[in-house]
Amino acid sequence: MGLGMAHNLHKQGFLSAVWNRTHAKAVSFARETGTRAASDLPELAALSNVIVSCVSADDDVLEIVDALAPHLNESHLFIDCSTIAADTARAAADRLRQRGVAFLDAPVSGGVEGARDATLAIMVGGEREAFERALPVLNAMGKIVTHFGATGAGQAAKATNQIMCAGIIQAVAEAMAFAKAENLPLDRLIDTLSQGAGSSWYFVHRAPNIVKNEYPAGFRIRLHEKDLKICRAMAARHGVQLPLIEMTLVHYRRLIEQGYGDEDISALFRLKNGLFEAAAKSARKE
Question: Of 11, 25, 143, 158, which is the active-site residue?
Answer without folding.
Answer: 158
